[in-house]
Amino acid sequence: MIEVQELTKRYGPTTAVDALSFEVRPGAVTGFLGPNGSGKSTTMRMVMGLDKPDTGWARISGRLYGELSWPLREVGALLEARTFHPGRSARAHLAALAAGGGIARARVDEVLGVVGLSDVAGRRAGTFSLGMAQRLGIAAALLGDPEVLLFDEPVNSLDPEGVRWIRELMRSLAAEGRTVLLSSHLISEMALTADHLVVIGQGRLLADTSVRELTADGRSLEEAFFELTSGSAEYRGVTTPPFPSTPQRARGVTKPVGAERNPQ
Ligand SMILES: Nc1ncnc2c1ncn2[C@@H]1O[C@H](COP(=O)(O)OP(=O)(O)OP(=O)(O)O)[C@@H](O)[C@H]1O
């Protein structure tokens, strides 16, 4: 269980998280949604003790992160990819984490297998593609077999097979009774993966509800999301460009206009 109570974080004049309260319960995937800059990563960082709240608190299984005896065995998180030494192999990176976290060395090869990196475990992690780095970050989160898991945009840069794998992994972790908090901008993916949703905008809670309830009136999750966040998106481009589309653009020609005037 994750409990967030009246959590507030300011960076200078910006209130990134504003008196935010919600709970994430075990046995379900809870999606964490909000427009760009709405405070999702800041909230997750505070849960993981990486940022200090100005007011309020976040507890994991009843305790602040700093009070956990063996943090990696109680909570796992993927907050950003590439948080490893580029010169170390994937296996050496996980082995170092295991040694520091009081985790059996045998878990290293287990989690490498779970994320599909066994064949490249000896390769320097700095040579990994973004998708492979993301998988290594997920392996690190799973290493201590924790009850509570947080994933910030885990499907970023994964190919379709990877996206489906993440969906099934999240669902199986929840089916084992774990607490899973998952942020993603891919709403269609969230509709397939999450049971419950916490939606925020400008650091404030907009909805704390089940996917089923939010879409009960026949709306898609995307429509419900846009309606909820319409007043709080900081960045939203126009969908009809204010310039006329030229016949060239309409045909999908991407060569800059005028390029043909100076043939080489
Ligand atoms: N270290 C920092 N210093 C200053 N401002 C910050 C810092 N971290 C976050 N912010 C600001 O806090 C607000 C919330 O940012 P945050 O990254 O938590 O949002 P987010 O919902 O995760 O966004 P995105 O979906 O784009 O990843 C933004 O206005 C951001 O610019």
Topology as a string of helices (H) and strands (E)? EEEHEHEHHHEHEHEEHHH
Q: Which shape, going by the Cα principal axes? A: globular
**Order of strands in the sheet with most strands:** 5-6-7-3-8-9
Helix/strand structural class: alpha/beta
Strand residue percentage: 15-25%
Contiguous uncertain segments of 5+ residues: 250-264
Largest sheet: 6 strands, mixed
Gyration radius from CA atoms, angstroms: 21 Å
- Mean pLDDT equals 89
Query: What is the terminal separation in angstroms?
Result: 64 Å
Number of strands: 9
Task: Bin the helical content.
Answer: 25-40%
Specify the number of helices. 10
What ligands does this structure carry?
adenosine-5'-triphosphate
Quick structural gist:
One of its GO terms (molecular function) is ATP hydrolysis activity. The chain is of the alpha/beta class.
Can you describe this structure?
The chain has 264 residues and is an alpha/beta fold. It has a domain at 84-146. The protein has helices at 40-47, 71-74, 90-101, 106-115, 130-142, 160-175, 187-193, 211-214, 221-229, 247-250, and strands at 2-11, 14-24, 28-33, 55-60, 75-78, 148-152, 179-183, 196-201, 204-210. β6, α6 and β7 form a beta-alpha-beta unit. Residues 250-264 have low confidence and may be disordered. Adenosine-5'-triphosphate is lined by residues 11, 14, 16, 34, 36-42. Residues 11, 14, 16, 34, 36-42 line the site of adenosine-5'-triphosphate. One of its GO terms (molecular function) is ATP hydrolysis activity. Belongs to the ABC transporter superfamily. Residues 236-264 are annotated as: Disordered. This is ABC-2 type transport system ATP-binding protein.
